[in-house]
């Protein structure tokens, strides 16, 4: 199971965010479109690539723990077709300050089938998680926007798509990292087990093939001897005459 409830609450009560949300929106930062990438879950897949890490002091650790306690995570159960993490950030950061965003890509085999059938080659995402700097605003935004139109420009590509958001209480970004790491390890373990099983089956098959080749060769030699009459001569040569003494 991927962490968080995958079915966003369709009947969530809309909350009045008020002036506090607007003031927090003024503090929201916007990222550089050229610096976003898909990859590390720790950094999210819309954050600039991290520089070389340095040792953290006790103050840095305390500051990070305090930031984590204040943060909140919202689960996005459906990502509109071809929407990227940077677009999710731009649409949500006007409500509150956004931290990391991580979207799960669609299955590669499904994408190949779509492209093969003439569909769009662009990458799609299926679901994702959004970290808000303040959990109070995260809960408010999720309740306010869930099952509402995304809006934007009137003829925009995502104007009529609906938000599918749910706030995950007591859920932090590290929980997501741990869960996805656990799922990845389990998947790799299953893959190794399947590879080992396939290798054993292949070895058994090759042994049977070799045994069949040997049997086929022996039968071919025997048949050749029979056809040439050599087998009959050998049988005659091995025949022994047995004399019984008269009593």
Reconstruct the topology from this structure.
Elements: H1 18-27, H2 58-70, E1 72-76, H3 85-92, E2 98-105, H4 108-116, E3 125-132, H5 135-145, E4 165-168, H6 173-228, H7 230-237
Antiparallel strand pairs: 1-3, 1-4, 2-3
Structural class: alpha+beta
Q: Cα-atom Rg, whole angstroms? A: 34 Å
Q: Report how far the terminal alpha carbons are from each other.
A: 94 Å
Strand line-up in the sheet with most strands? 2-3-1-4
- Low-confidence segments, given as residue ranges, are 6-39
Shape: elongated
Largest sheet: 4 strands, antiparallel
Strand segment tally: 4
The residue-averaged pLDDT reads: 77
Number of helical elements: 7
Succession of helices and strands: HHEHEHEHEHH
Helical content band: 40-55%
Structure description:
This protein is an alpha+beta fold. The chain has seven helices and four strands; from the N terminus they run ααβαβαβαβαα. It has helices spanning 18-27, 58-70, 85-92, 108-116, 135-145, 173-228, 230-237, and strands at 72-76, 98-105, 125-132, 165-168. Strands 2-3-1-4 form a four-stranded antiparallel β-sheet. The longest helix is centred in the last third of the chain and has 56 residues, at 173-228. The radius of gyration is 34 Å and the shape is elongated. Mean pLDDT is 77; it is low at 6-39.
Offer a concise description of the structure.
The protein is of the alpha+beta class.
List keywords for this structure.
single chain, 247 residues, alpha+beta, 4-stranded antiparallel beta sheet, 7 helices, 4 strands, 47% helix
């Amino acid at each position: 199971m991927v962490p968080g409830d995958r079915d966003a609450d369709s009947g969530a009560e809309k909350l009045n965010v008020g002036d506090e949300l607007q003031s927090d929106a003024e503090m929201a930062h916007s990222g550089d479109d050229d610096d976003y990438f898909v990859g590390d879950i720790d950094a999210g897949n819309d954050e600039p690539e991290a520089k070389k890490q340095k040792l953290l002091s006790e103050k840095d650790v305390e500051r990070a723990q305090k930031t984590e306690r204040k943060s909140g995570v919202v689960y996005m159960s459906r990502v509109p077709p071809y929407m990227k993490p940077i677009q999710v950030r731009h649409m949500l950061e006007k409500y509150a300050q956004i931290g990391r965003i991580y979207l799960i890509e669609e299955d590669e085999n499904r994408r190949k089938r779509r492209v093969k059938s003439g569909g769009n080659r662009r990458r799609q995402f299926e679901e994702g998680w959004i970290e808000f700097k303040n959990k109070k605003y995260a809960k408010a935004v999720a309740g306010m926007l869930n099952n509402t139109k995304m809006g934007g420009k009137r003829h925009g590509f995502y104007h009529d798509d609906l938000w599918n958001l749910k706030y995950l209480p007591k859920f932090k970004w590290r929980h997501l990292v741990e869960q996805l790491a656990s799922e990845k390890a389990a998947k790799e373990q299953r893959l190794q087990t399947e590879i080992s099983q396939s290798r054993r089956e292949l070895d058994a098959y090759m042994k049977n093939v070799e045994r069949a080749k040997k049997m086929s060769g022996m039968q071919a030699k025997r048949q050749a001897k029979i056809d040439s009459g050599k087998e009959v001569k050998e049988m005659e040569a091995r025949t022994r005459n047995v004399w019984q003494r008269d009593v």
